[in-house]
Write the structure tokens for this entry.
Amino acid sequence: MQGVAHARNCGDADLKTAPGDADALVVIPPRTLADVFDELAEVSLDPQAVLDLTAARCAELVGDGCLIRLISDDGATLEPAAYGHGESDRRDFARESLERAAQRVGDGVSGKVAETGRATFVPVLPPDADFIAEPLRPYLERYGVHSLIAAPMNARGRVVGVMLVSRERESDAFTEGDAETVVRLADRAALMFDNARLFGALDRQLAEHQRADERIRFQAGLLEQIDTAVVAVDNDGRCTEFNPAAERLFGYRREEVVGTRLLGLLAAPGQEALLAEVRAAVPERGWEGESLLRRKDGGAFPGHARIAPIRDAGGQYLGTVAVVQDLTERKTVEQRLEKRAAEQAAVAALGERALEGGPLEGLLDHAMEVVAHVLGVEFAAVLELTDDERSFLLKAGIGFREGLVRNITVPADWSDSQAGFTMLAKEPVIVEDFEGERRFQAGNLLREHSAASGASVIVQGRGKPFGILGAYSRQRRAFSADDVDFLQALANVLADAIDRVRTEEDARRRGLHDPLTGLPNRTLVLDRIAHALARADRSEGSVAVLFLDVDNFKVVNDSLGHRAGDNLLRQLAARLSDAVRPADTVGRFGGDEFVVLCEDVTDEPMALRIAGRLARVFSEPFSLEGDDVHTASASIGVVLREGAQDNPEELLRDADAAMYRAKERGRSRVELFDTGMRARAIGRLQTEGDLRRALERDELRVVYQPIVALGDGRIRAFEALVRWEHPERGLLSPAQFVPVAEESGMIVALGRVVLEAACRQAAQWSALYGPVPIHVNLSARQVADPNLVDSVAHVLRVSGADPATLVLELTESSLLERVHSPGETLARLKELGISLILDDFGTGYSSLSYLQHFPLSGLKIDRSFVAALSGSNGSGAIVDAILRMARALDLEVVAEGLETTEHLDVLRRLGCRFGQGYLFSRPVDVSAASALLEAGRVGADT
């Protein structure tokens, strides 16, 4: 092949001299270029067809347009011979332009190539392309050609023409790879064109000679120059010509076959019917087709033959001439493509089956059948890596003895099996012969089944590998890279399916188990209760359900943190599981609530004994964080199934009601369910539903109780209190619905209603009587609400109330909420200008610390201390101590629950300045409260 030269100033690419072996070039996919060569072979007897096909395919595969011009017989000019372009109008324009003007050898790009025999590659055509010959200028100006390749067409050491390929302005510039392709195609086309011309010359010469011997001698001289195998026989079927190409193809020397009957000699055995067809067809019309041919050494190969009869001028049959091509390479490519297509189809089908779902075992078994069929092996296996990663389970397989699949394990050590070595290598492993394998042992399983060769790949899940997919053969075999790619593709499909199944199983487990403790969750416990009730019906047994709630669990979270709380729950889950029988169920319902289901419980004493065992798990302290230990207890409710009761939800509700009774009676105790508890539980649910509707229907009412200066009886402030005007039960006190609001979370909405009403009233009273502070209670849930500060600020802004007239009363439980940072929340409320006081002082855990660390301006003495002032139990000393401490901290004090003049006298004597209670006034509506403000003073005798 000639080198390729670059035109000056036409780009900075540098295409080096191509190697001598044209087959070493890989410019476009080999099978595409091979297809072009095959097409040229099919028209190899027609010179013009060779040129036309070359121009058309070059335009299709490489450039927009292709022009082939041949050097005239005198070597002076380039004559247009073939045109190729995807658009017919441009092809016709080029033909018309070039047929009107000849181009001399040496002129322009093509002329230089014809003269020098060297290809020219112009990546980017410069604006002033003076080196373009005149005949091409109209096409250049009209269509904007910007990239050219001109390649000589070399045949038998001489240039027979030039192939010019162009790309127009709409296309990308040529690359070096494109140039190499054009050079290669030009050389092949030139050789086949020259061969075709020689064949044409042969036919013309034979037509001029009347005698067959002269014609055959002349033909023999020409056949010496043809690269394609050509053989000729006389009318008796005996060889008269056998050219050098035929010698190379079949392995016989010419002198070995001339005079022998060739058809039977060169045809492979077993084709008698085909030979009969050829013998019958050749004398009349010739024959063309594929057959299996045989070389001298006995090796068979696929070939294509075109056999034509030879006749004299009078039409007398003289013999035949055959052109033979070796199809081995093309058939190999076709077979490989067919095999690849079959493999891809098998992988796709397995993928579709995997997406359909179904049992994983069925998918794995089907995959084994696919491996065995497509690869033609006797054995296929999926080896699942066990949890300890020390062995593989034969999860699926084909070809192995019955009973081994899903029952036998093989070692996972890298030296003990191909599977173990594959896992270690983390890449496919191929063994051509286990007898000569030195990297690892074949393994007992494969040796027992006489496996000789094998290929294995990893089935890689999203986490750790699932295992190994392997194919094994009893015959020694070299598994190809395509075989391994096929195995890996199947392994990837299986890996995706396995990951999906595991994800679904994990999701189902997560949906039925508590993520913190691993215990069954509410859904699974209810399902097991339902099954237990059904079994009890069949066996006339009984079922007990125990509902357990950890006492004061919130203190653990608040004092030690949620991590310690989670640790306590995990330890408790383990202890409870150990305390029950294997057939019993321990479940967690979230928070600190656990449920235990026990079957075959004969009577209430047995149920209570089980509850006692559960209570005893708290006898040993729990180790939480570091050296910290914590003692805990639980309130346990027990219900024993009565009669035909078969509703799991109702049984669980009854156990829950018994647990609430245990808490109400002092915690750390066991309560057995009775029907009264069910009524109370139902009542709580009814109250919750009614309360939701009450918020929607504006059934809540706000009343006001005055806070009085004890010295002169003047009203200092009011406390806003909520009442529920129930449409059926009448006016309800807070004790009848506020606990339900706390448990259900409706306390936030309820508190918002009270806050809005109080602020509106404060604004109205302040406009009439001057500043009138109103106290509003905040629950722990309200303090924990992240929107509390914004909500309060919004209510103040909308109502027009002065922040100084709003006093928020906090419970000690609300200050325990470490997670929600109450200190930060209270500081932000203080910045609004609001006063904060501590309600029910003296009943909590560490009241003094609250006074020191939070921005409080006062406190309320709990009514329990005030009520005891009339006795001699020392409550006066406690109240005196609280008052002294408050004065030291500059805090105002309000005494709650004043009901007698004796209470008033003691508080005055101790120096308490403010108080509230029935002694002065019950909570009253807005109208009555306004009347009290008009009077300006509330006497102790009112």
